[in-house]
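Job type: complex structure
Entries:
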Amino acid sequence: MDAYNNILDRKSVRKYQDKKIDNEAINKIMKAAMAGPSCLNLKDYAFIVVDDKNELKALASLIGRTCNMLNEASHAIVVLMDMTRAFPIAKNYSIIDASLACQNIMLSANALGIGSVMLGIYPQEDRVLKLKDYYKLPDGMVPHSIISLGYSDDPREKEDHFEESRLHYNKW
Ligand SMILES: Cc1cc2nc3c(=O)[nH]c(=O)nc-3n(C[C@H](O)[C@H](O)[C@H](O)COP(=O)(O)O)c2cc1C
């Protein structure tokens, strides 16, 4: 699939086959995660790669209903903002940098035939605190999102999200 159609084709996948993603594919996905742009190229992010079934189930029950698919996922990538590396005069650029890493994870996964869904953590303070506690994160590491990964068992077609009304040309 070419790069443009890969973007149009990506969709949230929440049902997975019972099939493990191999390390080679995960390494490719993580390389893509860090290939994105970041403010001043500070790379103010970090990742926890989760592939242990018990750890995936623990994450699902920690966050709750919206993350149920983690019970069946092959992997989860917990995306963190590393505020110790963030641009000092505008630290919130970390939110953007981590989001761009998330998109690269999902697009590279799709290109490799792997389904994904992004699970929101930041800025929901209760979720942020639960993950900080669970992983005993050092100061400055802030949970941003979880990306659930697995081979799709979801036959749904991708929805077309295009809305002409969102576009403005030259003036509002
Ligand atoms: C910031 C963010 C948080 C999200 N959180 C969840 C979530 O907790 N659970 C879930 O099933 N999907 C979650 N999603 C996925 C969205 O529901 C999904 O992207 C949206 O419905 C569009 O569908 P598509 O990804 O198939 O194009 C999240 C997406 C984003 C960008």
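Summary: Residues 5 and 111 are 10 Å apart (CA to CA). The first helix runs from residue 3 to 9.
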